[in-house]
Amino acid sequence: MITPEEALRRLQAGNQRFLSGLRGHELEREHSRRMELVDEQAPFAIVLGCSDSRVPAEMVFDQGLGDLFVIRVAGNIVAPSQIGSIEFAADRYGTPLVVVLGHSQCGAVMASVDHPPESVEGQSPNLGFIVKNIRPCVDAVLQAHPGIGRQELIERTVRENIRATVDTLKCSTKELEPLVRQQRLRIVGAE
To answer: What is the CA angle 145-165-151, rounded to 5?
Structure first.
């Protein structure tokens, strides 16, 4: 079992390889790794990321099969199904790290900036749920920075949304709280 700090170092090193254009996990190695994972897995990190096609966690952190337990949802918001998935991986696999991965130019954040919750009435209630979850972050940024421009509002809201999701995960469930207190689980944000 690795520590939360070692898990975070592995992801940071993988992200550096990704940014420099080097890839450590090649297809041939992935095929043999897939055979090893048929009966069990032991992911070292859980990533709650946005479903945006430009931000696949395995590529961003240069990790391969079995390394990450990835949950993707527009706007990297938390809802019961995402929290339950995190609880499952932390409990079942002893995974020591949760990374909430947001990104620039997030469409869900832009929708939340451009459309107040009342404007999504009559549209998909599912899309409305996402906008309503992110909108408090928009409002917090607007309150802290009156008169802010749209692009800066989006950038700051992406970060605020990451922070809010991290905070929610740290203190919202009786299953995760003790793991965090005992330092068996670390929850961090990344952009």
So the answer is: 35
Tell me if 99 sits within 8 A of 165, measured CB to CB.
no
**C-alpha R_g of the chain:** 18
Residue 70 CA to its chain's centroid (Å): 8
DSSP state of 52: -
Contacts with 186 (C-beta within 8 Å, 6 or more apart), sequence order: 4, 5, 7, 8, 96, 97, 98, 180
**Contact of 83 with 135, CB cutoff 8 Å:** no
| Mean per-residue pLDDT pooled into runs of 10, the chain (191 residues) | 90 84 61 75 96 93 92 95 95 96 96 78 80 95 96 98 96 89 95 95
Distance CA 186, CA 166 (A): 10
pLDDT of 122: 66
Give the pLDDT of residue 97.
97
Residue 62 one-letter amino acid: D
Q: SS3 of 186, please?
A: strand
CA pair distance 148, 156, nearest whole angstrom: 10
Q: Which residues contact 6 (CB under 8 A, 6 or more apart)?
A: 44
pTM to 2 decimal places: 0.86
Of 178, 10, 163, the residue nearest 90 (C-alpha): 178
